[in-house]
Amino acid sequence: MNSMFLDASVYGGVLTILWHCRSIAPERLWGDFYISLLSELKKLNVWFATASQAAAWFRMRRSITFESATFQGNKLYLRLKSGAVAIDPKFIIRIHLPETMRTGSGGNGKGYMDVTWQGAKDIEIPLN
User: Which of 99, 98, 91, 97 is nearest to 115 (CA)?
Assistant: First the structure.
């Protein structure tokens, strides 16, 4: 797998492919590469978006604010505010865990956990 694809998959983010109508290679050589590229991307379960769809998604993401975050026992309680109505693809909240929760019982060893946000104002997240 291409390292750019891997980085985007592991760390999140956006990968933009600018496909020109002209290139150094003749057009007859584009087909196999383009089909191979799309095939690799589909394996990663990525979101294919137009420029306007991506801009709208980032606009929604910027509208999210964290009103509060509190810990009680092994749970994190979040209150979020957003102008987003229908969110697709869903947003991910990444929680960086303290050293004591990274390993051992229930720990994932990665130092963080990702939670899909469905748009609820109040969220309760078990941390173990």
Answer: 91
Section 87-100 average pLDDT: 83
Prediction pTM value: 0.66
pLDDT in tens, 32-70: 888 888 888 888 878 888 889 989 888 888 989 999 999
* Residue 111 neighbours by CB distance under 10 Å: 14
What is the spatial distance between Cα 59 and Cα 99, in angstroms, rounded to a whole number?
Answer: 34
Tokens 């991506």, located at residue: 54
Give just the sign of the alpha carbon dihedral 86, 59, 115, 76. Answer: negative
Looking at the chain, list the stretches that DSSP marks H as alpha helix, in order from N- to C-terminal side. 3-11, 30-43, 51-62, 99-102
Question: CA 71 to CA 76: how far, in whole Å?
Answer: 5
In the block, which residue shows the tokens 């309680």?
77
- Answer for the pair 127, 121: CB distance below 8 angstroms, yes or no: no
